[in-house]
Amino acid sequence: MWPGPLPCDGVIQKGDAVTASTIRRHPRQTANREPVRADLARNAALLAVLWVAYAVVRSITAGDLAAATENARAIIDLQQALGLPSEGALQGALLDDPWLLRGANLYYLGVHFPITLGYLAWAWRNHRAKFARVRNALIATTSAGLVIHVIYPLKPPRMMAGFVDTAAVIGPDPYELGISGGANQLAAMPSLHVGWALLIALGTIWISTSNLRWLALAHPTLTLAVVVLTANHYWADAIAAVVVVVAAWRFTRPSSQAARRLPDQPRRVSARSRDKRNTERRIRHTVGMAELFVDADQLRLTLSGWEKAGAVRRDDLSLPMASIVSVQRLDNARDGIRGLRAPGTGWPGRIALGSWRTRRTVDFIAVYRNDPGYLIELDGQHFARLVVSSPTISELEALL
Prior knowledge:
This protein is α+β, with helices and mostly antiparallel strands. About 45% of the residues lie in helices and about 15% in strands. The longest helix is centred in the first third of the chain and has 29 residues, at about 35-60.
């Protein structure tokens, strides 16, 4: 709605008839309409091409039953060797509760596409400046998944002995409803259900500023439980999906932290912002997704959405420069880790992210692989030390 009185060619008195010829449309209303329509058509065309690619891959892999069966047996053997829980055992424990499995079937069949399309529509309509990354990550994830579907056809658990096709036995049955004809039955690896759900969560956490945005993680969590209990995917399918999504999300990251704006939304920078930008020095972690900002008064570690989730933090880390006692270079940043993770995320040899506690101290860790980094001793802060991996240690030392 146009704010305030409508611009008119003449003065409208009380009691005058208002017609289409009386009101003059503001020129910006007309000017903005065409770019919006073109952007909508372009995005719709990209998603249509993605659907066509899916149909092509389905026709290519439809006859690879022997390879898909052999791959499924290999996946089952690998998961058993790794000690992962048996999908069949978990499913069998719930077969006496048909209402729960029926609910899982409904979630699998009825939530995947509607919530994805609804989320894309919401992001395009309300956050168009950030929509491009979400769309590109979705395209990259799906494209990588289609390539894997071609080179590694895989039968889902429901098509293997020892598992129950809950949709066919308990319902609703997609085969009777005629909604399974467009699905690729041999495309279990990776799970695009889990992948798309995780993308929605990452996009929501990245776009939104609400404290409730972290609830979006419930969608991929519930989707993982659903695809396993309904025997549509293996644990390995979900793990592969997470790897693909994280790579796609990182690959599509904008070149700067500022959101990209549309041509009809000019960027406005205040004099205060320009002064701050000119005096601030930034060092980017090329091994992670965090960024370190150093200026005259503050040392700030900004974390991406998934890093905040992994570190169990709601905010970035900001420390006064006066609290820094010393900076020590580490050939392997992992050498600076002490204590136990509580809370945080750790994967041996890959990542250590979050709080590490000893009996008397708490350190914040953001370490990737076995890369070099630095240890910053702090005084008077909640964290006694900050340990972060970075290839730009010499520049940091010079600044501090």
